[in-house]
Design goal:
Belongs to the nitroreductase family. This protein is of the alpha+beta class and 243 residues long. It has helices at residues 5-15, 30-40, 60-69, 74-77, 92-106, 113-130, 137-150, 161-185, 198-205; strands at residues 52-57, 81-87, 189-193, 212-220. The chain has a domain at 18-89 and 164-226: NADH Oxidase (3-Layer(aba) Sandwich).
Length: 243
């Protein structure tokens, strides 16, 4: 009999740890990584813009180069594959166009009220939010306008260039967590890394200047000493509140 879905998910969540050492002599299924990335692309993301990329570092030479950029951390050095989660805010026009096209396919009646709202979202609102200049002047103007509007009504206030950047990274973080759970469901361990030289990693991977790295994830079959300590969390009443 199959386990209830909730029970299986709880088991995955409870067993997932940041594992920093991986077996080197056992076979590693790189296809499991591809399938986990497929699932990660189903993660919720802001406005369905999907401004993320998953760069797989597979060859031993490439892994060695990226591991050096991760300060030689064992989770990178011993990983059987590294997955670099990258955000691409520079692709917003292309992805907005793709979303608008999908809406045109979905609605036979283009004069339908829902279709008009959806078109307006990707053809007017998204460009207004994502079209930013280097110095953030457009974002500052949007901040001022939303402040004035917010004096009389509820208003979304996170509209600056930095706000949009945070939103894109949040979406990438959701995808990264989905990826790590998917890897655990396939019997593999992961470790998300933030300690790395982002400029050098971008050079290693040939990433464009407009890209940013959210995190690097080491993958493999964890060793018995790959978890450095017992799991610790602050008491629940420190982080959960009822209103």
């Amino acid at each position: 009999m199959n386990k209830p879905l909730a029970s299986s998910f709880e088991q995955i969540v409870n067993s997932r740890r940041a594992v920093r050492k991986y077996e080197q002599d056992t076979p590693f299924d790189h296809e499991a990584v591809r399938k986990a990335i497929e699932l990660a692309t189903l993660a919720p993301n802001s406005s369905n813009m999907q401004l993320w990329e998953f760069h797989r570092v597979i060859s031993s030479e490439a892994r060695e180069q990226v591991a050096r950029c991760c300060m030689g951390q064992s989770a990178a050095r011993m990983a059987r594959e590294l997955v670099v989660i990258v955000v691409r805010p520079d692709k917003w026009k292309k992805h907005a166009h793709i979303n608008a096209g999908k809406i045109r396919e979905a609605y036979k009646d283009q004069n339908d009220a829902k279709a008009r709202r959806a078109h307006g979202y990707y053809e007017k609102l998204i460009p207004m939010l994502y079209n930013n200049d280097r110095f953030g002047v457009r974002g500052a103007v949007r901040k001022l306008l939303t402040f004035l509007r917010g004096l009389s009504r509820p208003t979304v206030r996170e509209v600056s260039r930095s706000d949009v950047r945070v939103s894109i990274h949040k979406s990438a973080g959701l995808a990264a967590m989905t990826f790590m759970y998917a890897m655990k469901s396939r019997g593999y361990d992961t470790c998300p890394l933030e300690g790395f030289d982002s400029r050098r990693v971008k050079t290693c991977l040939g990433l464009p200047g407009g890209s940013e790295i959210t995190m690097i994830i080491g993958c493999g079959k964890g060793t018995s000493d790959g978890v450095y300590s017992e799991r610790f969390r602050v008491p629940l009443d420190e982080v959960m509140f009822e209103h």
